[in-house]
Every structure is written in C-alpha cells, then in structure tokens.
Amino acid sequence: MEKIELSIIVLVLIGIIVSSATMIYVTTVVSNLSTLTDDVSTLTESVGNLTSTISDLALIMSEGFAEYAEKLAALTARLAAIEAGLAAKETLIVGTTDSVELTLDPAQAYDYFGWCILQQIGGTLVSVEPGSPTGADFLPDLAVNWSSNEDLDIWDFNLREGVTFSDGTEFNATHVKYSFDRAIALIPSIPEGAPAGLGYDAIINRTEVLGTYKVRFHLKISFSPFLGILASRSSTIVNPQYAPMAQVNYTAGDPRASTPVAFAGPYVLSKWNRVAGRDVEIKLDANPNYWDLASGYPRMEYIIFRFYSDAATLRLAIEAGDVDMAFRHITPTDVVDLEDNPNVKVWWGAGAFIQYFCFQTKRAPFNDTRVRIAVTAALNRTAVCETVFLGLSDPLYSIIPPGMLGHTEAFQKLGDANYTLTTTLLAQAGYDATNKLKFDLWYESSGHYPMSAEQALIYKEALEGSGVIEVTLKSADWAGYKKNRDDEIMDAYVYGWYPDYVDPDDYAFLYWASWIHTNYYNATQEALYDQARATTNTTLREELYAQIDEIAVQQCSVVPLYVSSAWAVTTPPIYGIYLDITQDMRYWLIYK
Questions:
Q1: How far apart (Å, rounded) are the C-alpha atoms in residues 533 and 541?
Q2: What percent of the chain has pLDDT over 70?
Q3: 208 within 8 A of 201, measured Cβ to Cβ
Q4: N- or C-end of the chain: fewer Cβ atoms within 10 A?
Q5: End-to-end CA distance of the chain
Q6: Helix count (H) and strand count (E) of the chain?
Q7: pLDDT at position 65
Q8: DSSP string, 346-388
Q9: Cα separations in angstroms, 377 against 176, 207, 389
Q10: Distance between CA atoms of 334 and 153, rounded to whole angstroms?
Q11: Beta partners for 278?
C-alpha cells in the first residue's frame, strides 16, 4: 500500500513538473509568436517547432521520469535556438558610407540618404510601384484615388481614412494643405531645398480642402508629371505639431523633435545620433500605427544603420557578417569581386543616377561656345565606364537616361576622344600645341559621388591626349564643392543627379538649371520644356525633348557623361530587395 501511495505521489509530482514545464515553454513560444512579423514560411516553421515541442512533452509523460531530464535538456536547447532565430530575423543591420547631409525636413532635405530615411518614416499621397521599369506606375498611399481635369491644372485626391500619427492625431486633408503651404512658404528662406529645386511655387497655386478626406491642388500651369512630384520625398506629409514655419534641424537626443514629418510610414525614427555633421547611428522601429500593417509591412521590426568611413571597411563588414546588407557605396571593383564569394549575395538593378560635365560660361575660356564643344569632343566616356566602373556604367549621350521617355543619343555626333574636331575648333579660338587651352577641372573628394578622383584622372588623360589641352585637377569636399559652385569659381566641374521623380521633366532642365551656376540660359529650350510638361501626348513629348537635346549639343553648357547601374550586397538569407529605376530602397519590403 505504501508503495502504491508513493507511486501515486511520484506520478503527481511528475505531472506537476511536466505541466509547469509545459506552461513555461508554451508561454515562451506564444510570446515569441506574438512578436513575429516575418513571412509565412517563418511562421509555419515556428508552429512546426511548437508542435514538435508539445509532442516531445507528451512522450516524456509516457516514458516516465527516468528520461525526463534528458528530454528536458534537449527541449531547452531547441527552444533557445528558436528564440535566437526569431530575434535575429526581427532586425536588419545596414552598412553604408552615406550620411544625412543636413536635415530630415522635407522643406530642406535634398540628398539621397536624407530622402531614403524620409521614405521609411513618412508618407506621401502616392508612391511608385516597386519594380516599375519606368517609374510612372503609381500606387495609392495616403490617397486612395485621384483625378485631374483635361488641362492638367486641377488635381483632386480622396484620402485614406483611419490613418493615425504616432501622437494620436488622425490624418486628414488639413495636414495635406499645411504640408504644401509650408513647403512653398519656406522656399525664400531655403532656396536650395527640395521644394525650391522642384519649383513647387512655380507649379502649385494653392491647395484647397474640399472635405475631411478630400483635397484639391490648383496648379499655375498644366503639368502632366504631377504624380511624380507628389511621390517624391519633398512631398512627405508633416505633422503641424512638430512642423513650425521654419526649418527643423537635428536635435541631439530627441529623434521626434529632429524631423517635422508625420510618422505615417512603415517605420518611426527612434534613434539618430550625429557627430560633426556625420551620422553615427540611426535606428528605425516598426510603426505600430502604419496603415498597411494588415499586408504584413514592414517585414522587419527594426532597421539599424551602421556608418563606415570608406568602401573598403564597408566591404570587410559585409564579408565578416557584421552587417546584413551593404548599400552605398561598395566600389565596382569590390562588387565584381564579391560575386564569387558564396557567403554573400550581389543584387543588381537599373540605374538612373547620372553625372555630367559643367562649364562656367560667364568668363573665358568657356564663354566661347567653340571651346566648350572642343572640350566635349575630347572627353572619353567609354574609357571612364570601362576603366573606372568596370562596365557597370554606360556612356550617356543625353541628359535623359536610357529607358526613359525622351532619351536620345544626340551627343554621339560629337564623338568620344574626337581629337580632329577638338583641334579644329580650338585652332579657330587661337589654341594649338604651343598655346594650349589651360583650365582647372574640379571634382568632389569626400565620397558624395562614386570614384570621383579616378574619374577625374581619366578625363584629364583623355583631354590632354588631344595635344592642345592642359588640365589641372582640383578637388574639394562636398560642402566646399557646393560653395565653390555657388561662388562660381570653378572653370569646369563634374556634377551628379539622382532623380527626384522618374520623368524626363526631372532631367531635361539640367542643361540650364540656375542652381548649377553655369550662367547658361536658353529661352528656346525652356519653352520646349514647358510645352513638354503640359501634355500627356508621349509622341509629342519625345519630339520636344529631342529638340532640347539638339540645342544642348550645339551649346554644350552641361554635357552628359555616364549613367550608373545599381547594386547592393547582402548575406544570403536576405530577400525583398528592389533596385528599380527610382533608385529607392524600400526597407519595409526586406525580410530574412
């Protein structure tokens, strides 16, 4: 009898122990699953592990206490592995040599990385469909639908209902009006901000609230690419509570006060540390109020950006597994080499980043059109693309990139390293082998543009190969380079362009853009440009842009050089990357 009672007591104790263990581990797994936001396959795997765990617990109960300790140890190890795996899949660590240039205020920000962060944390009325080959495939974002009149100067938008900002404010039409009114009002005090660069004040007459969730834009001109403007980062909706009628700058220790945007995007800015104008740490957290949570976005709970001083250390970081992803700027040499590394994956995509050669036309020697054309003819785009970029860039003979409406090959008629044309024109201007054309060629030295010093050497070599040109190379970091541009002290200089919106309207004007400070202007080109932006007739637009290119070849104020492809490097478990013509990196689509 005593043995039976003892057996019963032992069985009861085993039941209590097993039940407690079951409750503890099931609670742990349920907790893990409650935070799981990854893809369906990961969820299925986790549920499978949980089912296996419960089966093992049942087996323990049937086999008796003797094997309990061994099984419990195995279960502990298994659940620890599951927990570690789920935690790792919640965070994406991105390595870059980039940095926010100045601010995360859409009224000012006009740099690639600043716009990249704004895209993750802010919302716009429309967005470009990931993978779009043209950049003209628009999707609803904070607006659900839209329409325009035949003249393309009145645009109506019905807004998404139920969108909540992080402070509890519900998004409505007044926030749209305030955002655009503010952007335009700040143009005089921020003349080099994005709204100024895109000409918001020249395009938008006024924004009208038609209802709680309906807004109307009255434009000053007929403007076919308006959706492209609305999809750009400068059109990010701001939260009036954090967006005074003044530029919002970085505030140490307070990420919410460091940007005026309404946190209506897939992420919120949770940490932003800078030292001496360079980013040290940026962390984004999944936005619990994001309107598209039901679709499973964002895929990752956290995005952490780590900043590296140069491309070499960034490559070492991705090879060592210190980061999950390296994006901007792995050098062409390194990315080609990394394709053979089985521990990483290289992603390739379309390019819309271009660089171009600028002449200061207000003084000698480049106030003479013949001299500008002669120098243009001596350039060797192919040598730069093959030598510096290892074939990852292509020669560009129009300011509009290939694959985009309006692209031509107009500058090909001047040739590459066409020294016959160069020497002929320079002879007319009084230059020859004994009296060479001498000028300074400037390039940016702090990594804002890729491989700038290497490019400059090839340009110098090609130009001097004519026998009648002598080039002195000079450089400045990005801040100094922009100041030199504004002060108009550079004879010739190389500049670059990332698209604000993917439309020829955002490229063609570069031939005479005032902010480039070449002091060139052509009324005929601008009239053609205005006509092209006022029609949806694609055939007519192509003809107009071709005419603009023809004049550009005759004037050579700004000369297209190359268009770059795009690439990123990740560890193998990374998916969801789109490298399309927009050049956007949509981090909320990325998952492990």
A1: 8
A2: 85
A3: no
A4: N
A5: 60
A6: 17, 17
A7: 46
A8: EEEEEEEEEEEEEE-TTSTTTTSHHHHHHHHHH--HHHIIIII
A9: 48, 47, 21
A10: 48
A11: 275
* H or E element that contains 493: strand 492-497
User: What is the predicted pLDDT for the residue at 22?
Assistant: 40
| Contact status, residue 320 vs residue 377, Cβ threshold 8 Å | no
Per-residue pLDDT tens digits for 255-294? 999 999 999 999 999 999 999 999 999 999 999 999 999 9
Interval 366-387: pLDDT, tens: 999 999 999 999 999 999 999 9
Using CA atoms, how far apart are residues 171 and 165, in angstroms rounded to an integer? 7
What is the token pair recorded at 588? 């909320």
Residue 169's Cβ-count burial label (10 Å; 0-12, 13-18, 19+) is: middle
Is the domain spanning 348-567 CATH 3.40.1440.60? The answer is no
- Decide: 232 and 198 in contact? Cβ < 8 Å: yes
Residue 536 · residue 223 · CB < 8 Å? no
Whole-number pLDDT of residue 20: 45
Residue 268 backbone phi and psi in degrees, to 5: -120, 150
CB of 106 closer than 8 Å to CB of 236: yes
CATH number for the region 95-344+571-589 comes to 3.40.190.10
pLDDT band (50, 70, 90) for residue 448: confident
Distance separating alpha carbons of residues 109 and 122, to the nearest angstrom: 13
* Residues pairing with 562 in the sheet: 355, 395
Nearest to 553 by CA among 412, 353, 378: 412
Give the tokens for residue 476.
Answer: 């400045």
The reported pLDDT for the residue numbered 74 is: 55
Residue 22 to residue 17: CA distance in whole angstroms:
8
| CA 365 to the chain's CA centroid | 37
Mean pLDDT, residues 12-24: 41
Q: Got the DSSP string for 204-219?
A: EEEEEEEETTEEEEEE
Q: Strand pairing partners for 559?
A: 357
Residue whose tokens read 């195995």? 74
The structural domains of the chain, with segments of one domain joined by +, span: 2-89, 95-344+571-589, 348-567
Match 């779009």 to its residue by tokens: 132
Consecutive H or E run containing 472: strand 469-476
| Global pTM value | 0.81
- Give pLDDT, residue 135: 86
Mean pLDDT for the stretch of residues 205-217: 98
How distant, in Å, are the alpha carbons of 131, 286, 297, 306 from that of 283? 26, 10, 17, 9
490/513 Cα distance (integer angstroms): 16
Q: What is the pLDDT of residue 233?
A: 97
Report the alpha-carbon distance of residue 419 to residue 423 in Å, rounded. Answer: 6
Spatial CA neighbour of 446 closest among 310, 331, 277: 310
Integer-rounded Cα Rg, in Å, for the chain is: 29
